[in-house]
């Protein structure tokens, strides 16, 4: 085990996921789909939330490894990716409001203050060398587990809202709104806290749109199946 030292920032969007990012996602789904692991995306031509800096998703060098919120195994996986970062070409890991980066390799986990708290996924970035050459078999060799079969694309079915979580929007009232407000407060503890009053008013709608924008969802302020699934980590 050894730490990767250095960091290669993104420069511009490239149009597709890299081979290495697909390989890491394929291994992850094979090893963790049975424990709730999901593919939350690889390629996305966009800037880092709240900045004008191109995200590594725009170069197809970043995987969002979806995890159930609070999963006991998620931090262990994050630690293994960090500790084996040189072998895997991992240059950055963000999870649960903490970040490790090859730019500060010896500093260990540091507080992450970006807009997205990353409580429902591990954001994992690859160096260019790894993005071009990493294979599922190499990840398995280093971390164990099993890669997904080559014929299985790294995708997941459309999410559905759990029972008791109807589609809600501005004007809605009741317990589902209270639960939404509590979750949003937990996701964004540095923002002004919403009143947990069960009243879906303009402040709650604005916070929902804030979350949807940063999660790559349709920004409409409506909490339907996709938004509920992302908030609940299901």
UniProtKB/TrEMBL annotation:
Classification via InterPro entries: ARB_07466-like_C, Peptidoglycan-bd-like, PGBD-like_sf, PGBDSf
SUPFAM superfamilies xref list: PGBD-like
Domain of life according to the entry: Bacteria
Residues covered by region (Disordered): 143-175
Pfam entry (one): PG_binding_1
Composition bias type Pro residues, residue spans: 147-165
Every ARB-07466-like C-terminal domain range: 48-120
Protein name: Putative peptidoglycan binding protein
Source species of the chain: Actinokineospora auranticolor
